[in-house]
Amino acid sequence: MGDIFLPLRTERLVLRDFVERDWSAVHEYGSDPDVVTFMPWGPNSEEDTRAFIESALASQREESRDKFELAVTLADSGRLIGGCGIRVSAPSDRGADMGYCLRRDHWGLGLGTGASRAIVRFGFEQLGLHRIIATCDVENRASARVLEKIGMRREAHFRADSAIRGEWRDSYLYAILEDEWRAQRGNR
Ligand SMILES: CC(C)(COP(=O)(O)OP(=O)(O)OC[C@H]1O[C@@H](n2cnc3c(N)ncnc32)[C@H](O)[C@@H]1OP(=O)(O)O)[C@@H](O)C(=O)NCCC(=O)NCCS
């Protein structure tokens, strides 16, 4: 991994490191039951959200950083509308997993797709990854669609592998290899 350049910019978004004062904007979506339906965490208490921000700040201070939880903000206003992250989970295989979450009043505008595309690009270009995966609940249609739109392939259907608020749920695993990503970029 070489030098890391943040923030990440797209036409409509800026993905930047969290700062402490972001917690109230994060809490607005992290405590929304509709946002966390398919998440293993939440709805957040204030304490949960503070712990999330603290852990994001702690990972920024790590010398060899392997976790990037980024605030998704609107390029025009700077408003924080969600979070998007990538974590190098298999360093010897150059493998990572990624995830994202947006506040409800900003769904359906293509922003989840934009943020995910930016984090995948970051993973391949800046982190030098070989493979990036994401998992989502089989009923999380919007998330599965986002992963398909950014060129990820469904590789697995796990049975009852995740416990969400006491209920065993199935999930899909999506993946993309660096070669596939480069080939898709060439076609665009
Ligand atoms: C998943 C999430 C980030 C999607 O973000 P978004 O900005 O709304 O997504 P986009 O607008 O970029 O694209 C959504 C796609 O899903 C489709 N979609 C949305 N809801 C859908 C549904 N119920 N069934 C089928 N497709 C659906 C949209 O039509 C769109 O596809 P299209 O462009 O082909 O029409 C957002 O819904 C979210 O934050 N959800 C809560 C947190 C979460 O579940 N995170 C993922 C955990 S794995």
Description:
The structure is a single chain. The protein has a single domain, classed as 3-Layer(aba) Sandwich (Aminopeptidase), CATH 3.40.630. By secondary structure, it is α+β, with helices and mostly antiparallel strands. It has helices at residues 23-30, 46-61, 111-125, 141-149, 178-187; strands spanning 8-9, 13-17, 67-74, 80-90, 95-102, 131-137, 153-164, 167-177. It has an eight-stranded mixed sheet, with helices on both faces.
Number of strands: 8
First-to-last CA distance: 26 Å
> What would you call the structural class?
alpha+beta
CATH architectural category: 3-Layer(aba) Sandwich
Number of helices, where a helix is a run of at least 4 consecutive DSSP H or I residues: 5
Distinct small molecules? coenzyme A
The name of the CATH topology is Aminopeptidase
Compressed to H and E, one letter per element, the order equals EEHHEEEHEHEEH
CATH superfamily: Gcn5-related N-acetyltransferase (GNAT)
Estimate the helix proportion, in percent. 25-40%
Report the principal-axis shape. Answer: globular
